[in-house]
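Hi all, a correction to my earlier message: I attached the wrong file for DUF385 domain-containing protein. Here's the right sequence:
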Amino acid sequence: MTGEHALWLKNIRAHPRVTLRFRRDTLTGIARDPRNDAERQAAHDAFCGSPHPFDYGENLLHRKGLPTRTKIIELHTAWLEGGTPVIVDATL
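and the right structure:
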Protein backbone atom coordinates (compact mmCIF):
# COMPACT_ATOMS: atom_id res chain seq x y z
CA MET A 1 0.00 0.00 0.00
CA THR A 2 1.31 3.43 -0.90
CA GLY A 3 0.68 6.99 0.13
CA GLU A 4 -0.76 7.88 3.51
CA HIS A 5 -1.68 4.24 4.28
CA ALA A 6 1.87 2.87 4.00
CA LEU A 7 3.03 1.28 7.23
CA TRP A 8 6.59 2.60 6.84
CA LEU A 9 5.14 6.14 6.71
CA LYS A 10 3.02 5.60 9.82
CA ASN A 11 6.09 4.19 11.58
CA ILE A 12 8.26 7.18 10.64
CA ARG A 13 5.61 9.64 11.80
CA ALA A 14 5.29 7.82 15.13
CA HIS A 15 9.09 7.49 15.56
CA PRO A 16 10.77 10.15 13.39
CA ARG A 17 14.37 9.47 14.45
CA VAL A 18 15.87 7.55 11.50
CA THR A 19 19.21 6.13 10.39
CA LEU A 20 20.33 6.36 6.76
CA ARG A 21 23.11 4.13 5.44
CA PHE A 22 25.01 4.98 2.25
CA ARG A 23 27.76 2.48 1.52
CA ARG A 24 30.18 3.09 4.39
CA ASP A 25 28.54 6.25 5.73
CA THR A 26 25.76 6.33 8.30
CA LEU A 27 23.71 9.42 9.08
CA THR A 28 21.03 9.96 11.69
CA GLY A 29 18.25 12.49 11.49
CA ILE A 30 14.66 13.44 12.05
CA ALA A 31 12.12 12.57 9.34
CA ARG A 32 9.26 14.95 8.66
CA ASP A 33 6.75 16.03 6.05
CA PRO A 34 7.70 18.93 3.76
CA ARG A 35 6.76 22.24 5.42
CA ASN A 36 5.84 24.20 2.29
CA ASP A 37 5.79 24.26 -1.51
CA ALA A 38 9.47 25.24 -1.68
CA GLU A 39 10.48 22.08 0.21
CA ARG A 40 8.17 19.96 -1.95
CA GLN A 41 9.78 21.47 -5.05
CA ALA A 42 13.27 20.81 -3.65
CA ALA A 43 12.28 17.17 -3.02
CA HIS A 44 10.99 16.92 -6.60
CA ASP A 45 14.20 18.41 -8.01
CA ALA A 46 16.39 16.07 -5.95
CA PHE A 47 14.39 12.92 -6.77
CA CYS A 48 13.35 13.63 -10.36
CA GLY A 49 15.78 16.22 -11.70
CA SER A 50 18.94 14.38 -12.74
CA PRO A 51 18.94 10.70 -13.69
CA HIS A 52 21.87 8.65 -12.42
CA PRO A 53 23.36 5.51 -14.03
CA PHE A 54 21.36 3.21 -11.71
CA ASP A 55 18.12 4.83 -12.90
CA TYR A 56 18.55 3.41 -16.41
CA GLY A 57 18.50 -0.17 -15.10
CA GLU A 58 15.62 0.66 -12.78
CA ASN A 59 13.68 2.08 -15.73
CA LEU A 60 14.13 -1.16 -17.70
CA LEU A 61 12.25 -2.99 -14.94
CA HIS A 62 9.29 -0.58 -14.90
CA ARG A 63 8.83 0.75 -18.45
CA LYS A 64 8.73 -0.73 -21.94
CA GLY A 65 11.47 0.08 -24.42
CA LEU A 66 14.91 1.50 -23.91
CA PRO A 67 15.29 3.92 -21.02
CA THR A 68 15.73 7.60 -21.77
CA ARG A 69 16.27 10.61 -19.56
CA THR A 70 12.67 11.70 -20.24
CA LYS A 71 11.22 8.29 -19.33
CA ILE A 72 13.21 8.21 -16.08
CA ILE A 73 12.04 11.68 -15.06
CA GLU A 74 8.42 10.75 -15.91
CA LEU A 75 8.65 7.56 -13.82
CA HIS A 76 10.19 9.30 -10.82
CA THR A 77 7.66 12.14 -11.05
CA ALA A 78 4.78 9.63 -11.08
CA TRP A 79 6.23 7.89 -8.02
CA LEU A 80 6.69 11.17 -6.15
CA GLU A 81 3.22 12.48 -7.02
CA GLY A 82 1.58 9.15 -6.16
CA GLY A 83 3.41 8.80 -2.87
CA THR A 84 4.20 10.87 0.18
CA PRO A 85 7.58 12.62 0.26
CA VAL A 86 9.47 12.65 3.54
CA ILE A 87 12.37 14.97 4.33
CA VAL A 88 15.15 13.88 6.68
CA ASP A 89 17.04 16.60 8.52
CA ALA A 90 20.29 14.65 8.83
CA THR A 91 23.29 15.23 11.05
CA LEU A 92 26.80 14.04 10.27
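Sorry for the mix-up. Residues 5 and 82 are 12 Å apart (CA to CA).
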